């Protein structure tokens, strides 16, 4: 057993969709979350900049002696996970691999849509990994830069969020995809919009579920689960305005959280 | 006479609304424009960061031996103009003062709405300057963080732009303003939306017009107007994707521009 906390980070509030799955699947674990809300979105920033940010964040999380780190951000996973893994003496997982296995299990017509930030889409990592598993898969990708901004403003469930989602997924629908991968953890916050826009024959793949499963497997396998009857206490840190983060946390979890502001730069 | 170019900069494409007015009012002048599209939006970044950016940009523009600099960005004007003015040996103007004089001339019921980025609204500079001129003025302010992002994506004239504008100005309308100041140069790109949303009794103040007038006055007064019959040649530089900038330029001016990418950092 290992009663230390799990470090989770994202460019902002998007990683809370992963936290939500961890709460469900591993309710006894404690989380330290860092949301880089001041410097969000990561999706179209230079790679070197994002890599510098992720190193700062990992150093911050390590200062709490976390037992494992979850990069709850596709962009940061793609750009930094390999290098971080080499440097770290604790396990670290991202959100990309889970999306791939879920998408392959979901599609029936082998036409998969990927929506993500500009970096994620440009990297073509989902396309490469999907085709490696099954070269008959057709992948249609769409960068959706506004969806992170809208989610960070807490405006997903408004007409703004609806029309932005519609604008971005229309071309994928026209291409006949039967599966759309949310390759950005923020996009889960637009779930209601996708449900309204998409025919029920099109399935949404949310990597958060599989990521929490992967986390659970690793902790179980390495005998690192938290084993105590005391109620878990989670901590939330942000680089931007605390109240904005807490407000969105409230919308997602229907309960309060007191986020603390830290300056990592 | 002074045949050197005028340096104009903004966090992205918003400053093109000021360029548009310079084209109209000073058609013989030549412009060097820098749009910091890679690092846009400035509106909620730390002040020190924005100040560092503006210094880099002014150094870049000075390398072309410009005769004058126009900060076509409210956020950058508010944060940096005083310090830049002290350091520079050429005139520099911003976009705030023009907005104030136009708003005072426009309002009839003394209720003025200000829309801008988070920094601009938090600075309360428009409120302070308006009340200094007339303490009977009521000012209602609203930060509209998404409007820059939407304009930078070239999506102003879509349902996304419409509903975002509606979301932000509704409370000002309820407060009974008869004048709304576009305290961010990007917002002019949403002009069609505001026209659809607002009753014709509410007037929009676009500081770009007055800014170009101020520029014209200074150049005339200091005998620095360009005096040659050769057709002016403008140059456009960006820190982000050139094609995205050129596309939006095309939408505004209905003609092509070849933007060049530079890395100032």
Task: Compile the SSE list and pairings.
2 copies of one chain form a homodimer.
Chain A: E1 6-10, H1 16-25, E2 31-35, H2 47-62, E3 68-71, H3 74-87, E4 92-93, H4 96-106, E5 111-116, H5 118-123, H6 125-133, E6 138-143, H7 145-152, H8 159-174, E7 179-182, H9 191-197, E8 203-205, H10 207-221, E9 235-238, H11 242-253, E10 260-261
Parallel strand pairs in A: 1-2, 1-3, 2-9, 3-4, 5-6, 5-7, 7-8, 9-10
Helix pairs in contact in A: 1-10, 2-3, 4-6, 4-10, 7-8, 8-9
Structural summary, described in words:
- The structure is a homodimer of 265-residue chains.
- By secondary structure, chain A is an alpha/beta fold.
- In chain A, 47% of the residues lie in helices and 15% in strands.
- Chain A is built from eleven helices and ten strands.
- A six-stranded parallel beta sheet of chain A has the order 4-3-1-2-9-10, sandwiched between helices. A four-stranded parallel beta sheet of chain A has the order 6-5-7-8, with helices on both faces.
- In chain A, helix 4 crosses helix 6 and helix 4 packs across helix 10.
- The two termini of chain A are 34 Å apart.
- Chains A and B meet through helix 7 and helix 8 of A and helix 7 and helix 8 of B.
């Amino acid at each position: 057993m290992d009663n230390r906390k799990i470090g989770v980070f994202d460019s902002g509030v998007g990683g809370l969709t992963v936290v939500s799955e961890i709460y469900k699947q591993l309710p006894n674990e404690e989380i330290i979350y860092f949301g880089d809300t001041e410097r969000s979105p990561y999706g179209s920033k230079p790679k070197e900049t994002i890599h510098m940010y992720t190193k700062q964040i990992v150093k911050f999380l390590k200062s709490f002696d976390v037992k494992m780190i979850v990069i709850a951000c596709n962009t940061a996973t793609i750009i930094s996970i390999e290098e971080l893994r080499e440097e770290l003496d604790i396990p670290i997982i991202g959100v990309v691999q889970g999306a791939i296995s879920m998408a392959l299990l979901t599609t029936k017509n082998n036409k998969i849509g990927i929506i993500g930030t500009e970096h994620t889409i440009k990297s073509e990592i989902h396309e490469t990994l999907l085709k490696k598993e099954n070269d008959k898969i057709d992948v249609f990708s769409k960068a959706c830069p506004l969806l992170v901004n809208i989610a960070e403003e807490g405006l997903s469930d408004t007409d703004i969020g609806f029309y932005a989602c519609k604008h971005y997924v229309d071309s994928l629908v026209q291409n006949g995809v039967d599966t759309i991968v949310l390759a950005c953890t923020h996009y889960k916050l637009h779930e209601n919009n996708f449900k309204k826009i998409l025919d029920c024959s099109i399935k949404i793949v949310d990597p958060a579920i599989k990521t929490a499963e992967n986390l659970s497997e690793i902790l179980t396998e390495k005998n690192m689960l938290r084993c105590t009857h005391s109620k878990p206490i989670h901590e939330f840190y942000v680089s931007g305005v605390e109240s904005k983060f807490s407000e969105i946390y409230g919308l997602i979890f229907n309960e309060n959280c007191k986020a603390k502001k830290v300056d990592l730069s």
